[in-house]
Each structure stands twice: as structure tokens, then as C-alpha cells.
Amino acid sequence: MEKEQFYYDNKVVKKFIYATMFWGLIGMTVGLLLALLFIFPELTQGVSWLSFGRLRPLHTNAVIFAFVGNAMFAGIYYSLQRLLKARMYSDLLSKINFWGWQAIIVAAAITLPMGLSTSKEYAELEWPIDIAIALIWVVFGINMIGTILKRRERHLYVAIWFYLGTFVTVAVLHIFNSLALPVSLTKSYSVYAGVQDALVQWWYGHNAVAFFLTTPFLGLMYYFVPKAANRPVYSYRLSIVHFWSLIFIYIWAGPHHLLYTALPDWAQNLGVAFSVMLIAPSWGGMINGLLTLRGAWDKVRTEPVLKFMVVAITGYGMATFEGPMLSLKSINAIAHFSDWIIAHVHVGALAWNGFLAFGMIYWLVPVLFKTKLHSIKLANIHFWLGTLGIILYAFPMYVAGFVQASMWKQFNPDGTLVYGNFLETVTQIIPMYWMRAIGGSMYIVGAFVMLYNVIITVKKGAEVEDDFTEAAPLQRVKKGRLLGETWHQKLERKPVQLTILATVAILIGGIVQIIPTLMVESNIPTISSVKPYTPLELEGRDLYIREGCVGCHSQMVRPFRSEVERYGEYSKAGEFVYDHPFLWGSKRTGPDLHRVGMKYSDSWHFNHMLDPQSTSPGSIMPPYAWLLKNKLDKSDTEKKLKAMATLGVPYTEFEIASAQKNMDAQADIIADNLTQDPSFVESYETAQAEAKAAGKEFVPIQEREIVALIAYLQRLGTDIKTK
């Protein structure tokens, strides 16, 4: 049979590699800045867009979607063409995929520091960007499926199964979790509320880790590890079990992020059961990856690519052992809300994703530029800097997590907390934060070493753009199995059926967990005393979201003796029915705030935002001076109330029409309370005189953002009677 001649598209692969390194260094550098803010809280004092709360989602989005996302696209675009013996379906779609994805990253880099955030973890971007993500993802899917349909290779290799599973599942997760009602171009509210929003978010959040950080990289592992080792995959049968069991079980595990919360017990228990089962397929994949190196371990000593890949697969194994362990209720009770989780997440991100991406880049760049890597020695230096950086990052965070859990739960013989002041915990773990910053710095230095090495390699490489190749066209086969073909091999040459089956496998878990929680009212018992937020409280809640307060403060008191003693009555499902979105949080750098309402005076909250150290000695919270100066924007308040009413919050037309009047009345009460503080009156009058002398507009205190935030904080947890 006559072979067809064609070129593989290397240009798009190179672009994604460059973007991977560029955004990776930016995302990691922002992460280092955040680590330093734990040690020097006032490092970016006065600059709102450099505050911790606004930069944290930028860091997570940059690392997940910019660094890992671009690495994923680079690896898929390279391997897919070779595995299918076909150029990508459309060069135009490849370009749209690349430039569209970079535009989305730039949009995130602009909007998140501005405070334009939905607050939903790993899904903070506002609705116009969410739509853009969906469109670019569809472009990627069309390009991939189009290439599969015009392939010259009959059976789909295991890596492609993972690519297809990734495409389908990320699309489903992103669309359903991002459903929101827009108020304006820059503001929207989640269509789900409270418990339901939490379940949908962590169904998405856990599976964003599963199907964006894991399954595509498993596909890359199945392609690049055999290539780098020049060995076949250890077990074809194990890869089949690995793929189908992993995508089916993973989708059920989201509720393990919500153990001991107001989520119904049946959903929590389902999450635990499937999370524990996850260890089997996860370790099956790790074993398949490591045993692929059988007979090639001598190369690991000398080849940096294999060093990175071995540590990456080992990191995957560690993270996927720890994940199921953390989902056990007894362990989760200790680890959740602590720095233990930060250590766990970064073992996965830095070792599994980071090192596999680095290994892939070190293998791809010399191949794409028809040359040798500039310096094996520099690559080895990068490896050891990165490995030691991971250890120095993760180990102190584990220690910090154990210290936090221990101190939070200790009681005196008389029944009082040994460490009643939350800040006693914070001051104990500052040395761990120093070590984390040092470890992170080493990891970033290693990445810069790689950047230098790659630049020199590219400069001395060939100018050849695309690879020339030839392959015989695929011949159609009649219905039924080919001679000697197993049932799964038959499925491997039917990409549409394989994709449909993968979609069914991932939909089952989501449907079983989410539909009953949305439809069966008994899952969320109502509480008659719970009322909607006032207009001023709603504006204050939006400020709380804008400043990223949920990144450091939880709003979920779990039913533990230690938490009830420290914070107050444990949280009930019915308290969150008007919360669009939910704000339960996932980390306690500061204390839980669900029962903070009326615990302190308005003046205390004002001074706490002005200078946290003045009210809480030892606090590592930065000051929020701009909240005390900025005039509250009330132009969209009525639109916000109407949107909430559309989502089922019982605001009447009269309440919406009276919003401005009600806001002014509540703001006046808070302003009067503030004027009871002599120090406030003195500074307020001085500022007023200075503004008058300078001919500047003076914003009365009742019109400032801080008043709305105080109104919201004073409302928290006061809807039910507590001791």
C-alpha cells in the first residue's frame, strides 16, 4: 500500500512549551510572594491588588491552568500526532487553542488582583472568562477528536484514552460548577446556595485535581516514560484497569473535602468510601509507570529526564496514598483546615505535575530542535534543587499541620481550652513558614536554571519547523472483531463509543450525589429564624469575597467539642440557604468566623482592619487600609437583590425599591457606634480637616466600604440562638 507523506505540526508544541516555562515561573514567583507574606504581613502594605487574599487565587490559577495547562497541551499536541500518525486536524484550531488559552490567562492575571472573583476554589474567574474557557476547551476537543477521526493508526493507545477522558470530564465539571446568574459584566452569583453550592464546588474542585492535574498527566506518563526509557509500558492489562476504575471512582470522591460539615451524612460517607477505593487504581498507575523502567534503571543515574520522571511518579504515588488516608474521618478531623493540606497539595503539584512537566520539556526540546541538551550538569543541578526544595517545602508544612491540630484540640482539666487564643497557634508555626519560603525559593531557582538551559539549547538547535513523515492510510474494517482482537482492542478502534462510555462512567457518581442534594428538601432542614442579608450586609459580603477573606478564614464550625468551645454552636445546613456562593473555606490561617457576629464591637472591627496587630497582637493578617478610605459603590445594589430574588432569595419588590434607604439607615447606626470610640473621633476629625484644607472630597464614614464589611461580619452566625 502506498504511504502518504505529511508533516507533524511542531510549531504549536514549541509555543506551548515556551508558555509553560513563562507562566510557570510567574505562578511560582507569586507563590513565593504569598509565602513571604506569612512572615512579613505588611510587605505589600497599602497596595490592594498585591494583598494576600487577591493574589492567592492568582497563584493557584496560574500554576494549575497556566503552568500545568500549557504543559498538558504541549504534551498532548506532540504525542497525539505521533500516536495517530496524523497532523493535527486543523492548524487554525491549534492556533486558536494556544492564543485563546493565553488570553484567558492574561484575563485572569488582570481580574483576580482587581478582586473580581467568585471565591469558588479553582473556579474564581467571573462568568465572561468562564464562557471563554468553555469555548477554547471545545476548540481543543474538536481538534483532538478531528485528528483521531483522520488517524492512520487503527487502535488508540492508552495515553489517548486519558486525553479523551480529560476533555469530556473537564467540560462537564466546568460548565455545571460555573452556572451563575450575572449581575453585571464583572459580577455574578452562583445558581446554587449553601450546602448545594459546597457539594457542587467540591465535586468540581476535587475532580479539577483529578481530571486536569492527574488524568492528562497520566496520559503523558504513558507516552513519555516509555519514550525516555526506550522500554514498552509494563502492563497493557493494568493500563485498562487503571483507566476505567480511575475515571469511575474519582468522580465520587469530592465530598471528602466536606467531612463533619453541614453536608448530609450519606453524601459524606459516599465520598469516604470511594476515596478509600481510589488508592487501588492510583497505585496501579504508579506501579505501571515505575515498572516500565525495568531493565532501564541504570539510565536513571545518568539521564536527568528519567530522574525527573521517577520522582514525579513517586510523588504521584505519595499524594494518591495520602489523599485516601486524609478522607478517613478520624484523620480528616485532625488535618482539615490545617497546613497539613498545604503540604499534601504541594507534594502533588511540585513533584507530580512540576517534575513530570520538567522531564517532558527536557526530553522534548532537544527532539524538537534536532540537537542535544546544552548541559546535563545543569539539568542535574535543577533536579537536586527541585527535590530538596520539595522536601524543605512539604516537611515543615506537615509539622505545622500537626502542631495546629494538636494545639487547637487541647483542654485543661477544668474543661477550658489550653490555647484559647487562636494566635498562640500562629506564632508557634512561623519558623515552619520560614522553611517553606526557603524550600519554595530553591524550587524556583531550579526552574530558572532550566530556563537558561533550554534557551541555550534552542539557540544552538536547528531551524527546522515541522517533522516530515509518512504512513499508510487506515483501511476500513467490517463489523465485528479483527482476528485475535480482544473486546477492549475492538473498543480502542471505536473512539466515539470509547468517549461515550467514558462520559457515562464519570456522570454516574455526579448524578447520584448531586441530584438528591438539589431535589430532596430533607437534606437541608430549614430554620425559620434565618433571614436574607440586608442590602448593606450583601454589599459587605461581596467585599469579603473581593478581598479573598475566605482564603484564610473558614465559616464552618464543625461539631467537635474543641471547635464549639472555641467558636460557638456548630454550623447547621439551614443557615446557608441564602448564601450564593457558600463561603465555608478550606484553610484556617485565622480563626473561624461563622459565629463572629456581635462578638466584638464595630470599633474593634474597624481597628482590626486598620491595624490587625492593635487588636490581635501576633496576628499575621495584613492591614486593609483601602477599605477604610474607599467609597462604597452602591450603584448595582438593586440589581444584586433582583438577581438574588431570581435565585430564590425572598426579597420583595418593596425591599428592593427601598434598598438605598435601608442601607443608609443601617450605615448610620454603625457610624454612630464608631463615634463612641474617642480615638476614632479624633482621627476622623483630623482627616476631615486635612481633606478640607487640601480641597479634596471627604467621604463620610457611613459611605465607606468598611461599614458594609462590618455590617456583614456582625451578621454572621446570629440567625440562630447560641450560647
Automatic annotation (TrEMBL):
A Pfam family it matches: FixO
Pathway: Energy metabolism; oxidative phosphorylation
CDD domains given in the database record: cbb3_Oxidase_I (cd01661)
GO-annotated molecular function: oxidoreductase activity
Domain Cytochrome oxidase subunit I profile as annotated: residue spans: 16-465
Catalytic activity: 4 Fe(II)-[cytochrome c] + O2 + 8 H(+)(in) = 4 Fe(III)-[cytochrome c] + 2 H2O + 4 H(+)(out)
Enzyme class: translocase
Keywords on record: Cell membrane, Copper, Electron transport, Heme, Iron, Membrane, Metal-binding, Oxidoreductase, Respiratory chain, Translocase, Transmembrane, Transmembrane helix, Transport
Membrane topology: Multi-pass membrane protein
Primary localization: membrane
Entry EC no(s): 7.1.1.9
Chain ranges of the Cytochrome c domain: 535-717
Cofactor: heme b; Cu(2+)
Membrane-spanning ranges: 16-40, 60-80, 92-115, 127-149, 156-183, 203-224, 236-253, 273-293, 305-321, 341-369, 381-403, 433-455, 498-519
Compartments where found: Cell membrane
Similarity section: Belongs to the heme-copper respiratory oxidase family.
Protein name stated in the entry: cytochrome-c oxidase
